[in-house]
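=== Structure Prediction Worksheet ===
Name of assembly: unnamed complex
Input type: mixed (protein and possibly other molecules)
Chain count: two
Listed entries:
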Amino acid sequence: RKEVEQDPGPFNVPEGATVAFNCTYSNSASQSFFWYRQDCRKEPKLLMSVYSSGNEDGRFTAQLNRASQYISLLIRDSKLSDSATYLCVVNSPRDYKLSFGAGTTVTVRA
Amino acid sequence: GAVVSQHPSRVICKSGTSVKIECRSLDFQATTMFWYRQFPKQSLMLMATSNEGSKATYEQGVEKDKFLINHASLTLSTLTVTSAHPEDSSFYICSARDPTGRGSYGYTFGSGTRLTVV
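=== Predicted Assembly ===
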């Protein structure tokens, strides 16, 4: 079983729409969770960390469900510039390694 | 914030040759660096963890004699792909951990190297 699994999508949405997707992780001892954004042929860049109580950063909302071991990301009022692959990332508490999901592709169309 | 410079950004080499990729932490001391590989439409896969002054720790299935990692200083780690073959063509990315916690909660990524072996 992969450490981090994501719905690959693609999610193809019109501008202004809301899009949401999840990922699941297998290590119940994981303590740090992140969403990264990766544009085509570029390095991943941190979008936001995910806190237990859930957190919001502008149009982006992240939720963590420890009991079910899943993390979600919701994008409101989608912009064309939100088109990217979103990577779910989990930090191993033991050795600082990051485990990446394969990514969820979002395409926002005009 | 913390910056990691990775070079080259793109390299094309002939099968059988070796390619060296460098990652430098520009404004912090990177005691630990991680090397990842990403094939198209797949996730980043950790290849190895290097610690300054000691041998790298390779993930299962990664050939240490093929992917040579050197982390001789606190600001420089290199990955050498030896005797490259077309199946080694991939996107290689390094990540350095800033012990002070700057830059994405301590993890800063290089801009990646796209290797094509012909």
